[in-house]
């Protein structure tokens, strides 16, 4: 089981039926540079250690997570699509559910995990949102898929929590990333992309600001999180940008049936 001091819970106002947390790198069995609670099977770690880590995680949740094969896209896994496909991991970068005790999960190590819940607690979502997914519309698709699961649900009735991601003072990007968000207003782009002095064509990018703008434009106004930097907090988080060879932590959410 992952103890309370080795995980992070969203700082949102959610219904009692909604349970969610983000693991950290602490509390597992993996050796350096994957130390210690690496939950990613494709990061280069000993798979036996990863499976032990997933057993530790499993003791804190009601079912095996809906693991995704994340490809930095915008596809959303739904209960219907999962039933049609059978066994996972499912190729998608987000998932939604209205089924009690179905645990949604995304793995990250700098990209942003975003968790969602309806205010009534009957629909949830989880998205893996790096810059590619953000620009491709993964957050919009997740909210749309949530609304499709509950008649009458609108974005205004959804809360979102932006989990630990690389911070705006550490995420160096080039012109390709700036151009991916060319559809944004000039004022937002100037706030979200700060030119790096002395390095032409290089910027510090603010994933949290970009995600908040995307969510707000949908009508999602209940947005929290954005308080961490995976790159600078080496004690808590894995960071691909910082270490290259490293593990993955998980952000998870589910609906409890007995609340």
What would you note in describing this structure?
The chain has a single domain, classed as CNF1/YfiH-like putative cysteine hydrolases, CATH 3.60.140. It contains eight helices and 15 strands. Helix content is about 25%, strand content about 25%. The two termini are about 20 Å apart. The relative contact order is 0.21. The protein is globular. A six-stranded mixed beta sheet has the order 4-6-9-8-10-14. The mean pLDDT is about 95.
Give a concise summary.
This protein is of the alpha+beta class and 259 residues long. It has 8 helices and 15 strands.
> In percent, how helical is the residue content?
25-40%
Number of helices: 8
Mean pLDDT across the residues is: 94
* Name given to the CATH architecture: 4-Layer Sandwich
Q: Fill in the CATH topology.
A: CNF1/YfiH-like putative cysteine hydrolases
- The radius of gyration computed from the alpha-carbon positions, rounded to a whole number of angstroms, is 18 Å
Number of strands: 15
Task: Note the overall shape.
Answer: globular
Structural class: alpha+beta
Strand order of the largest sheet: 4-6-9-8-10-14
Q: Please give the alpha-carbon distance between the first and last residues.
A: 22 Å
Q: Spell out the helices and strands N to C.
A: EEHEEHEEEEEHHEEHHEEHEHE
CATH homologous superfamily assignment: CNF1/YfiH-like putative cysteine hydrolases
The top-level CATH class is Alpha Beta
Number of domains: 1
Quick one: biggest sheet?
6 strands, mixed
């Amino acid at each position: 089981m992952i103890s309370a001091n080795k995980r992070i819970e969203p700082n949102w106002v959610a219904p009692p039926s909604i349970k969610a947390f983000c693991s950290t790198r602490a509390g597992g069995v993996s050796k350096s540079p994957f130390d210690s609670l690496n939950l990613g099977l494709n990061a280069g770690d000993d798979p036996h250690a990863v499976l032990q880590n997933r057993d530790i995680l499993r003791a804190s949740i009601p079912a095996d997570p809906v693991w995704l094969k994340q490809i930095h896209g915008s596809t959303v896994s739904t209960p219907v699509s999962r039933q049609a496909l059978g066994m996972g991991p499912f190729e998608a970068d987000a998932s939604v559910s209205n089924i009690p005790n179905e645990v949604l999960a995304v793995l990250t190590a700098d990209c942003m995990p975003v968790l969602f819940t309806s205010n009534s607690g009957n629909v949830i979502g989880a998205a893996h949102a790096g810059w590619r997914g953000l620009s491709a519309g993964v957050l919009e698709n997740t909210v749309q898929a949530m609304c499709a699961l509950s008649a009458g649900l609108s974005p205004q009735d959804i809360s979102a929590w932006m989990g630990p991601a690389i911070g705006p003072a550490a995420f160096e990007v080039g012109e390709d990333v700036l151009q991916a968000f060319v559809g944004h207003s000039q004022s937002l782009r100037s706030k979200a992309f700060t030119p790096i002095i002395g390095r032409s064509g290089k910027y510090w990018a603010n994933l949290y600001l970009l995600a908040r703008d995307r969510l707000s434009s949908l009508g999602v106004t209940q947005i929290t999180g954005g308080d961490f930097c995976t790159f600078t907090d080496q004690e808590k988080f894995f960071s691909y940008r910082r270490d290259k060879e490293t593990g993955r932590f998980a952000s998870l959410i589910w609906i409890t049936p007995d609340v």
